[in-house]
Design a protein that fits this description.
Length: 336
């Protein structure tokens, strides 16, 4: 039960080449700049409904999804889903168009911020019911095992969702049937707005699978290289047919739970301290500079990403809204 945590402790960080670390840095920066722009569009009224930003948590999605096999592995998450799609390499233009409810969006403008989906990329949402994606993730893992396709399902959920009953039903089934799944708890400390210690009797979430014989891993979710190394260990274990793994990624969101949340349950000083000491992008930047990558090269990357994000916003604003007839499509299962 402790073997994976011990293996992680023996070698904490992935030995990335300069090119790999640059790619991780660029992906995280793209998520950060994209989410900042999404927040601006929300303020302008161009994004409606709820909008949950991923600012601060970028190392989790990038570190984990960079280790997946895109030809066979599957991913499912909750409603804080823009960053995961960007980490998968999906075009920012179709994601931004979806946020603004346009026909050219990845779900044709009908999913919005919380319900993005891409069968082509094996990305199965974007789910608004807290914790529901965990059971669906177990279903994806069952499909991988039934088809014998060698795929692994990655099911993300938060510290708040970790207290939902269906999560433990899913743990039990996944362990009993040795399903190829990694349960990923993105512990950002506050669920919607309640501190972990006020809402959870067991605050070390990686231990939550012990009763179901699921090994756990406690990972620093603010360090992309530590996340990637932990992912390598977990994926190797699951691919060998050993059953599920539970990973707790300790991370932090700089914004409120959603754009409508003023986040008054924590101080500005707390947020600023995390930004100064643990920011995943700044951490990667410092390491790149220490490796001899020039400041000018990193500035060029930032400039290029800002241009790509601006292009995605322009594309979204200039795209048409779905036709009224789209109300009657995708209601029932058809051919895919």
């Amino acid at each position: 039960m402790r073997s994976l945590q011990e293996a992680h402790g023996n070698e904490k960080r992935y030995k990335a080449s300069d090119e790999e670390l640059l790619e991780f840095y660029e992906q995280m920066l793209l998520i950060r700049r994209f989410e900042e722009r999404a927040g601006q569009l929300y303020g302008l009224g161009l994004i409606g409904g709820f909008c949950h930003l991923y600012i601060g948590q970028e190392a989790v999605a990038v570190g984990l999804q960079s280790a997946l096999d895109s030809t066979k592995d599957s991913v499912i998450t909750g409603y804080r889903d823009h960053g995961h799609m960007l980490a998968y390499g999906i075009d920012p233009k179709v994601i931004m168009a979806e946020l603004t409810g346009r026909h050219s969006g990845i779900s044709r403008g009908k999913g919005g911020s919380m319900h993005m989906f891409s069968v082509d990329h094996r990305f199965y949402g974007g789910h608004g019911i807290v914790g529901a994606q965990v059971s669906l993730g177990a279903g994806l893992a069952f499909a991988h095992k039934y088809r014998e396709d060698g795929g692994v399902a990655l099911a993300y959920f938060g510290d708040g969702a970790a207290n939902q009953g269906q999560v433990y039903e899913s743990f039990n089934m996944a362990s009993l049937w040795k399903l190829p799944i990694i349960f990923v708890i993105e512990n950002n400390g506050y669920a919607m707005g309640t501190a972990v210690k006020r809402g959870s009797a067991e605050t070390e979430f990686y231990r939550r699978g012990t009763a179901f014989r699921i090994p756990g891993m406690d990972v620093n979710g603010m360090d992309v290289l530590e996340v990637r190394q932990a992912a390598e260990i977990a994926l190797d274990y699951v691919r060998q047919g050993n059953g599920p793994v539970l990973m707790e990624l300790n991370t932090y969101r700089y914004r409120g739970h959603s754009m409508s949340d003023p986040a008054k349950y924590r101080t500005r000083e707390e947020v600023q301290e995390v930004r100064e000491k643990s920011d995943p992008i700044e951490g990667a930047k410092k390491e790149l500079l220490a490796r001899g990558i020039s400041e000018d090269k990193l500035k060029d990357i930032d400039k290029r990403i800002r241009a790509a994000v601006s292009e995605s916003a322009d594309f979204a604003e200039n795209s048409p809204e779905p036709d009224a007839s789209e109300l009657y499509t995708d209601v029932l299962v058809e051919r895919y």
